[in-house]
Amino acid sequence: MIIKENVKAQLQERNKNQGRLLVSCPDKPGIVSVLSTFLHNQGANIIESSQYTSNPENGIFFIRIEFRCENLIERAQEIEEAFEAIASVHEMDYRFAYGNQVKRSAIYVSKETHCLVELLWEWQTGDLNTDIVVVISNHEEARYMVESLGIPFYYIPANKDIREQVEAEQIELMKKYDVDLLILARYMQILTPNFVSHFENRIINIHHSFLPAFIGAGPYERAYDRGVKLIGATSHYVTNDLDEGPIIEQDVERVDHRDRVADLKKIGSLIERRVLTKAVKWHLEDRIIVKKNKTIVFH
Amino acid sequence: MIIKENVKAQLQERNKNQGRLLVSCPDKPGIVSVLSTFLHNQGANIIESSQYTSNPENGIFFIRIEFRCENLIERAQEIEEAFEAIASVHEMDYRFAYGNQVKRSAIYVSKETHCLVELLWEWQTGDLNTDIVVVISNHEEARYMVESLGIPFYYIPANKDIREQVEAEQIELMKKYDVDLLILARYMQILTPNFVSHFENRIINIHHSFLPAFIGAGPYERAYDRGVKLIGATSHYVTNDLDEGPIIEQDVERVDHRDRVADLKKIGSLIERRVLTKAVKWHLEDRIIVKKNKTIVFH
Amino acid sequence: MIIKENVKAQLQERNKNQGRLLVSCPDKPGIVSVLSTFLHNQGANIIESSQYTSNPENGIFFIRIEFRCENLIERAQEIEEAFEAIASVHEMDYRFAYGNQVKRSAIYVSKETHCLVELLWEWQTGDLNTDIVVVISNHEEARYMVESLGIPFYYIPANKDIREQVEAEQIELMKKYDVDLLILARYMQILTPNFVSHFENRIINIHHSFLPAFIGAGPYERAYDRGVKLIGATSHYVTNDLDEGPIIEQDVERVDHRDRVADLKKIGSLIERRVLTKAVKWHLEDRIIVKKNKTIVFH
Amino acid sequence: MIIKENVKAQLQERNKNQGRLLVSCPDKPGIVSVLSTFLHNQGANIIESSQYTSNPENGIFFIRIEFRCENLIERAQEIEEAFEAIASVHEMDYRFAYGNQVKRSAIYVSKETHCLVELLWEWQTGDLNTDIVVVISNHEEARYMVESLGIPFYYIPANKDIREQVEAEQIELMKKYDVDLLILARYMQILTPNFVSHFENRIINIHHSFLPAFIGAGPYERAYDRGVKLIGATSHYVTNDLDEGPIIEQDVERVDHRDRVADLKKIGSLIERRVLTKAVKWHLEDRIIVKKNKTIVFH
Q1: CA separation, residue D79 to residues B31, C282, D21, D36, D72 (Å)
Q2: Within this chain, do residues C193 and C172 fall inside the same structural domain, yes or no?
Q3: Which chain C residues are Cβ-neighbours of B266 within 8 angstroms?
């Protein structure tokens, strides 16, 4: 357990006075002024701020503000209560996030472990701002590497005939471990609407194609058959429409006629691991706002 | 006419003793030996050679050989006749190409001229190994820039109601100008199977998406709606299946949530022009073999 | 003259109520609040805002704000006068820019015209937010294409022996045409400190290497000799240290052992034109702040 | 030891009838014919072949041929003896390589283990065609992960004062383990000419910059100070000129003004691991010929 607890403690200490405020509301003049004046009056200093307006005329205003504030842990409740009035006046959707509240992640994995390996490595080096509280798999391959880091590992066999029962068990585990984010690191099982409804915009999947090309199964085989010159991977939030959720990140690599399906899979695995890792990082840093079926990612 | 004739004369002189041989045949031991010995006996020196075998067991063997040979123009017929016997024994599909026989290209364009501008520019600087013999458009926008370079320009209004008549006229023009290659530089009109059948593997199109994503009309609008993080362009040979022909080249650029449809179009236009230009170059250098619905591109 | 005046008129009309404010000052809590409240009180609506702080402790605060304001042309002076007091209190360096004041650019070019061609093309399509008021060259190659667009062209032979006299003439022309930005589109002449001092952070050069590799002459030849696997181009502001000015943008392309110097130059020319064009666009949109010898580019 | 021996056995079995022939010689007509006829007569089937000629006139001819041959292990000596006569006539430099002779690698590492982790991962999945016979480090950080895979680990403290003694010890180990390839996976110690002379073109280093920019120590710090917009990594063979050896592979990633030195190091570490891994793979597949101070890499 030493590694796991050390990572968590270091992340908490490093970020303890750091907060984030994400807001969306109908655009109108003066919103930036209202928000920045509020934070200033609360003793918070804005260290990073990004905004976006969906349309110059009658659009939606979105902003992500990162701030520092002395004794933020103690001050948080007071700040949020004070903000309530402003949010109400300006019809704001908003959320605060605090550096000491390290998000709790569950990783779902199947036989192929390259994405899991990458996530664990980034996490061990302190570059993934999360506490990995549990790993769930329908195979045993990953057990040793997970448990040796002090992370609980659950082997839950899964197939479409026992889907509901499997998902019930998984939902229980998510509750038990109080999970904030579910990462499907090549989990390869389709989730039911019921399962998805428990975790809206909190399940990140990696699809092994450049969506919307090759939705569904066997994307590398179909990319090979089509003779594409680039292959890709897509990280997205999971919705009830298979591979149709809001896209967070995509990337591609060049291939050519000499690459067989196995080569595409190998090259693809390197794309998948970096695309998923980026998407997970941005989620953990509260850089993403979902708007209809698209994402706004504040880099 | 000065520019056009100068470009052609320079290309002919530069490449006059240069030849290419493209071969595909059932793979078996000794094919490279047969081909290289033949060329050596004909006094030709291999200066570049690339091969590919579709499968180690009972696959198809493909090779592109670039060679130099003194007095190649005079020798060509003799070489081809001698090769006939070898080709027959080994069941070879093959073609010879000669540097002095500069391929004759027709460019089809609509209102948007960025791809045409790029092709004309590459051609003027001697980097596009072709004689552009005619430009055809269903709009007048491009007339001035085309004619000022000494290239005939034909304005042929087109829409789906008059498609057959328009294509008949175009086919006549292709015959009149003895066209080897048709380049659809954002022509935006669907071609009938009859038209396509006249020019098998000799029509190159640029589609403004990363195929097979966003087949058909309005790809940038649909890319915007889907919220993709990369947009692309695809150059392919035209077949009777819309946007389903053999892919020659693809590329992408990064976009984000701030990019509106107009931004995607602008960024996309830069991708389109370079992807189409590469595909056309490779075709003109006989670097492409079409195999079923895929391309082998020997770089 | 029709093209040139049309472009300018369209740019002015499109951006007439659009303003930008760039500020840098010692960081302290409340700066964003001060600025956004000021603009709100002036009736301006912030449509885009990016900030950066060089260091969380005692750093420098930088911000670029894009805003819209009714009747901005008439209001500008009043707004600037009101801002003076705020700027003074917070020790701000700042500048306002207005959409109707289209920046006046001069392009310097030598024999190779690919960067010039690209800039003229982007400008004609309305994608380069400037009035190209003059082109200066030490060769005649570009005269026809420049003058046919209604842009004055000056042929001024140049070499190191007559440098001072040439620069005196150029400085006069810059004054005559009231030039805001000098774009060295492969001009290939070294400028004296005297010349540079007239246009601090207003001369943008394209260097044909990935700086700081291959500073000085013959970068493609030296890249070839070194056997690099990527070649690049760098756009930067010109200072008195050759090729050492603040970098605005860089990009690269892959090459391999088969590419000779001429191939590197050809591939490089495609990099140069896009890197220079991006840098020029960002300057024209006031996206760049120079800080010591580095640039902050707000995308 | 199970993992290590399994990897080796699988590689040997997979490649047992596979051979490679690399040749360089003065170019003249008929060389391809000679080589391909020879292999055909030996019962070998060419499955991949790439050639390159340094200059059309009086250049050097280079070729890499991959072939399959029944009972290659038993036939190897006979084939090589027969080839001797041909090589002599045509003044060929050449080498044969055999799939069953898995190359033996030593990895040198310091405190930072990201490149080592990547190499070990690729090796475990069977994607690195080598037997990793020993890991040497001047720190203890990597011991556990190395030994748990059954690979011997040697801790040899090193600094410039004891360089000769350290290198003598290392050379002994290289002999003991019969090492073919030395991989400096961020080893961070300068090697003496004596050490290098023992392993000509057999030491691969990863330098954490886009060479020739930022030769020597502290490249990320210097990249930060210079304000570059891309950072890179370079894999090269080690010679006696620091960071001046033949470049095998390079790559870059985009950075911006917000990235501090620590960010550059993090982004750079991802570039380093993939660039080093590619270079090592190509070496192990005999895809590289060193010619003066440059590499020919047959992809």
Answers
A1: 20, 63, 11, 13, 9
A2: yes
A3: 127
